[in-house]
């Protein structure tokens, strides 16, 4: 028995002394392997007499169990220590900067964003979005809109023309989105509620004009729509678009050939400290033109003005974008300067919605 | 259209303040563009009394003045020779900005003597060049009176934008009429007295137009005033003209300008001594010329209407007179013309000759025909008053048209079109104030239109008149009825496609640009454009001449501009129209983009985790495919063909097609020659996705998706490498492998490419990984081998290659 105790203390001290897993493994093989010291002792049980075996059996098995346990504990310790050592070497500098992600880098142009905002607002009021070609003919851009040839309004529009054709006619770049009104009324029976956003062109290029810009046109035609409804639509639109609780509007009589009566509309604003705020203060800011659809326009679209009536309005998309988001210069909208686009553009996932808010 | 407040008061008796007038003008359709009161700049300058003017102790030419400013007594050192004790001058206190010198006054010492403020000259006030001395006012001028008042300059100048439908408001009398109708006073315009004259006008006028051209000049009235003395106009007249920005010339000319603005009645004066023979109103002859009053020579075409005598053309009808027959200080006999000219012809002539004048501006909008003779009488009376002389009788060629017309009017129409509830009495009162006479009752009203309102033709025009004068503020706001229930989707397929394309590309790191629809001809031609039908006749510049056949030229140029500014790695896109002709169906919606430098979707530039390489054809291919996927294109069934087209690198670009023919997209490296044409450099890749080329999606009866068929069994993968000839494309190998067993094979990817001498000249090895998904039981080795054999056979058959 004394031998067993010596053997046990011997093995246990070897276990404790094993510095790594291979060393521990060789201790285990030497003790518990096929030819290990404890395995040998177990084998020797067979040659013992029953009495000896009764005492030695439990003693040797006990020894085996304790040694096995000690090895397991030691192995866990060694593994733990190993892991700690490894972790200590596996440090990285997490302050290293990331690459700019695609989502971060990409932008939606303010004009597209504002068109999506307009869509969200007017879709809710039951308006569809209508479109038309940029290259128009005289009828849709002028005549049907009650602007006959030689009318001074034609000159004010600074039209871009294409070469005259053999039949004397010439195509042009639409000077406003109003031809879409005509196309819609010719194609679709009332009731009509549309907005028509898109590119328009005028032969003018200076500090505040670009030869291409964007307008949105609105048109309502049915058997009842009148100026009072128009006021409501515009008020609701301005509140929703500029995301303010209230906005004062001033309607000034004006003249457009395609509406009668015609009005220009101002909204109240403050310019305190050089910062424009819509819906506050006592200053006025012109934002759009509108009116009751002229009977001649209805006639040109084969609608009886005694039965059908309605209203229309138009405004500059770039302009309302500038007012809302504070860009100082219209020309920059079309210069594709990366710095401008990054600064004033919107993230791909900034989808305007009435439920979530038009802007963040 | 400019006028002064005092001039307006000649026509309008009103208690209203300038602010009320300005606000009202804007509300009733005469938008005020500016109000300028010259008195404001002079407000600091007031009449002062020089109590004492004594010699300066240290300077011979200076005087030390003690000045009573009305509120203060101050000491001023003054160098003017006329500064003297007891005089009334104009004083500017310290702190005042002196308009004539641009200086701000400060208390100072001049040669040791304190000086506070300044006694000013006319030049220092910016009033004239007079600088011989300080302003010397009459002795009875009250101390403290503002200088502007003393000089009669306290008269605000108002500029209104008159819309083209309102020629009557191009006369101050017309503006007064509107204001009176809107409740701001009463009209006090005096109607000119008819003047008989003595003896016939010695110069005859013939209107030489055949029947269908009679409208070009329906009437031409004229009279001679003999024995006038022409010279500078009196101060009041000069001041009024100067205030509205006109240059006084001489009394005869100034009178015509005055009446042009006062009554919207343009006139012309000929020096009778310089007119040879009689006057004829006729078409110009091609090539005839006139040196006009603006100093320019105009060459005519037959469509121009001119007034000619035996010398040739003397005046452009309704537009401008000639230099030769104009009036100057030597004029003693003057012919005054008051004629009517056609609006359209005047506009065309003005446009063709590119000549602007107050007369053209008015005649192309419409001048009151009924005022033709009264206007002539008014001018005659002014000529006689200012220049003396003896008038002849009026000669009238042609006939004054009678535009008398009446329009049916139902008061209820106002409510129907505007929602405004007005009593018929209020409407007839407003119409009456504007010169419209109403007759009849209820729905049976008729309204006669005054001769100065060519814009009013029908009921809606009258509704407008009533509404603008009442003011839209009184129109009640009424909610537009909404449809019951939740708003329906409204975007069309095309609109949704454009939106998805935009958001997808922005999410891939591209930045949206909006570039011009017109590009330089050279750029258009490099992208298959240049069609003459869509080249602008009047472009802003040669850089903006042709409608773009592709979005790429604009984007490439933009990318290059940014690169030249130091931002060489960038990705831009645009979604918009391209043009192939001038019909509506020739405009297509396209999503296109460019990537430059190292601007890959995963990030560009140098980075600690690995520097990005140059953009390549596969970056562009990925952009195109992502857009197509976002638009719901059947991506798995699309074909990719080598070669993207003329503006792409032939070997490093491709087409994405649906079937063999329908091109949905192009992508690739840009052709070096194209880049050179656009003065751009690479590396630059591009893609174009044709949003309108995608087929309409099939309508589905339900939104439900097919049931998920996920197997519990492990998928199995097997690798194959094929050695193929140089012309074999990876896409062919993948397609053949996929087709070998459509039920079992769920994926084929290419994981290795290798080319080397060991394979034989030009041959390459393409290694694919095929994924097999067993459905009902685990595959046996024999089954897997059988599928593998089918794959090998299919690929070898399709490509002529061999298993490596």
From TrEMBL, chain A:
EC number(s) on file: 6.1.1.20
InterPro entries on file: aa-tRNA-synth_II, aa-tRNA-synth_II/BPL/LPL, Phe-tRNA-synth_IIc_asu, Phe-tRNA_ligase_II_N, Phe_tRNA_ligase_alpha1_bac, Phenylalanyl-tRNA_Synthase, tRNA-bd_arm
SUPFAM superfamilies given in the database record: Class II aaRS and biotin synthetases, tRNA-binding arm
Domain Aminoacyl-transfer RNA synthetases class-II family profile span(s) in chain numbering: 112-352
Gene Ontology CC annotations of this record: cytoplasm
One Gene Ontology term from the biological process aspect of the record: phenylalanyl-tRNA aminoacylation
Main location group: cytoplasm
Record-linked Pfam families: Phe_tRNA-synt_N, tRNA-synt_2d
Compartments where located: Cytoplasm
GO molecular function: ATP binding; magnesium ion binding; phenylalanine-tRNA ligase activity; tRNA binding
Reaction equation(s) it catalyzes: tRNA(Phe) + L-phenylalanine + ATP = L-phenylalanyl-tRNA(Phe) + AMP + diphosphate + H(+)
Similarity remark: Belongs to the class-II aminoacyl-tRNA synthetase family. Phe-tRNA synthetase alpha subunit type 1 subfamily.
PANTHER family: PHENYLALANINE--TRNA LIGASE, MITOCHONDRIAL, PHENYLALANYL-TRNA SYNTHETASE
The protein, known as: Phenylalanine--tRNA ligase alpha subunit
Annotated source species: Microbaculum marinum
Gene transcribed to yield this protein: pheS
TrEMBL record, chain B:
Subcellular location: Cytoplasm
Catalytic reaction annotation: tRNA(Phe) + L-phenylalanine + ATP = L-phenylalanyl-tRNA(Phe) + AMP + diphosphate + H(+)
One Pfam family linked to the record: B3_4
Cellular component aspect of the GO annotation: phenylalanine-tRNA ligase complex
Domain FDX-ACB residue range list: 711-804
Enzyme class at the top of the EC tree: ligase
EC identifiers of the protein: 6.1.1.20
One GO MF term: magnesium ion binding
Keywords: Aminoacyl-tRNA synthetase, ATP-binding, Cytoplasm, Ligase, Magnesium, Metal-binding, Nucleotide-binding, Protein biosynthesis, RNA-binding, tRNA-binding
Cofactor(s) demanded: Mg(2+)
Cofactor note: Binds 2 magnesium ions per tetramer.
Domain TRNA-binding: 39-148
Classification via InterPro entries: aa-tRNA-synth_II/BPL/LPL (IPR045864), B3/B4_tRNA-bd (IPR005146), DNA-bd_dom_put_sf (IPR009061), Fdx_antiC-bd (IPR005121), Fdx_antiC-bd_sf (IPR036690), NA-bd_OB-fold (IPR012340), Phe-tRNA-ligase_IIc_bsu (IPR045060), Phe-tRNA-ligase_IIc_bsu_bact (IPR004532)
GO biological process, one term: phenylalanyl-tRNA aminoacylation
Residues binding Mg(2+): 455, 461, 464-465
CDD domains tied to this protein: PheRS_beta_core, tRNA_bind_bactPheRS
Domain B5 intervals: 402-477
Subunit annotation: Tetramer of two alpha and two beta subunits.
NCBIfam families with a match to the protein in the record: pheT_bact, YtpR
Family: Belongs to the phenylalanyl-tRNA synthetase beta subunit family. Type 1 subfamily.
Protein name, entry field: Phenylalanine--tRNA ligase beta subunit
Gene symbol of the encoding locus: pheT
